[in-house]
Design goal:
With 121 residues, this protein is an alpha+beta fold. The chain is 31% helix and 20% strand. It has a 3-stranded antiparallel sheet with strand order 1-2-3, covered by helices on one side. The radius of gyration is 16 Å and the shape is globular.
Length: 121
């Protein structure tokens, strides 16, 4: 997902079948446990579960296309020859155009392997 695209509610057309949107986003939600590369777009489209519109569906389709093109990009744990613990964090201050709330997140690596991550609005 393009990080510069800001999705808002009630833009575009209302989806004919919002249940299909909800089922697909729910499946993506479980997939983020082993695919943190899709965690950001899934967290964005999850905000619009009550009333999805066509731009939200377009993002869901884009995530599906990405998953189809990158089927083996899950978490892999390997020995990197060290036991360092490294952490990284980032924040987007008031980045949501809808409610002006911030988004923050962090990643923790142990021995070069991703062991914990979180993103929160």
């Amino acid at each position: 997902m393009d990080p510069n695209v800001k999705l808002v509610a009630e833009e575009g057309d209302v989806l004919d079948d919002p249940e299909q949107y909800r089922r697909l986003v729910g499946k993506f939600n479980y997939l983020t446990f082993t695919r943190p590369d899709i965690a950001f777009p899934v967290s964005v489209v999850r905000q619009f579960l009550p009333s999805p519109w066509t731009p939200h569906w377009d993002v869901v389709i884009r995530v599906l296309r990405y998953l189809k093109k990158a089927p083996r990009r899950g978490l892999v744990y390997a020995s990197h020859g060290h036991g360092r613990v490294e952490g990284f964090s980032d924040v987007d201050w008031a980045g949501s155009p809808v409610d002006r709330r911030s988004t923050t997140g962090y990643y923790v690596f142990m021995g070069g392997n991703l062991v914990s991550w979180k993103s929160k609005k």
